[in-house]
Amino acid sequence: MDEPGDNVYEHPEENIYSEVPSxxxxxxxxxxxxxxxxxxxxxxxxxxxxxxAAEPEHRYDFDQQSSASSVSEKEEVHSEPPPLKPLGSMAxxxxxxxxxxxxxxxxxxxxxxxxxxxxxxxxxxxxxxxSQRPExxxxxxxxxxxxxxxxxxxxxxxxxxxxxxxxxxxxNVTTVDKATKPKQLKxxxxxxxxxxxxxNGEELTDIQKSEDYIEAELYPPRYPKLACKHQQSNxxxxxxxxxxxxxxxxxxxxxxxxxxxxxxxxxxxxxxFDKYLNEPLDDEIDENDDGDEPQVSKRRFxxxxxxxxxxxNMLPKLNMIRVAGREMLKYEIPEEFTGIARYxxxxxxxEEFMQTCPDPGEIVWYYGGRKPxxxx
Length: 376
Fold this sequence. Notes:
Blueprint: E1 31-32, E2 35-36, H1 67-76, H2 87-109, E3 115-118, E4 138-143, H3 155-167, E5 171-176, E6 196-199, E7 202-204, H4 207-217, H5 240-248, H6 257-278, H7 309-329, H8 338-348, H9 351-354, H10 360-366
Parallel strand pairs: 4-5
Antiparallel strand pairs: 1-2, 3-5, 4-6, 6-7
């Protein structure tokens, strides 16, 4: 039998919780292994400092630390683990690595002897500064000409060609003959006719989507913006090429009234476009001009003095009209259209337009003329 002093319930008059006041009702203790946990309980003094905080399981490193914090850490820890990379940087590296692998794999398949480098003397994958965004890897495939090597007559190919040139980005241009597509391109843009685009491994075969993609990915301040400032500039001259296409299909006599009707419709469309080029845009109007004569625009291109997407669309078509019209239809753009004359003269003085134009013989051959002689 236990000793009387060992049983806490034999002394009800003693308050065994006097050392630790509590609002909760007391809970009976129990003995285990001959040791009374209540009698051996020791209260914690109020004046003792709090116990040290446990070392956190995860450590977060910041990209930048103050000099004071770095000194204190060196004093306390002699061997400091290497800094951890931020999760955002690691994710960007993973995505960039996947894109590079996809691009390299497709680029190796698309090597072609008719490929030329534009806007740069160094390879596209030339190392860039760490602070700059890596130079994109762009490969433009355009329609091949009569010898299956030169640039062929295709306003859509020249349209994308001009856009990339105007952006100032380094890119490769490869001519592709749709009848004899090279084996290196058998896995690229299946079933699509040129032009098509490889942009960091992304295949783009739709003209409008390619145009939007170029403008979205190659943005200021590194690359110029090509979108028009004036919305009406996007629609200027949009019916000219359709009228010309109907006109050049005519194969009858030059005195045929039908030919005269088709020519008149083309001139009407050109006159409307010429009027837009001669009318000053909102930012050209001189409010202090008190002259009686209407103001005439002196801008070089459709939307101003710099080329835009509207020019990349319109200039290749105007060039086809003046070349094929002269050679196939004995047609010349009327001299009365002074705005168009000024516009074409400004374009002929630019490298972005002239270096992307097909040879005049390719345009004539496209419309049924004699095949050009191969160049030596």
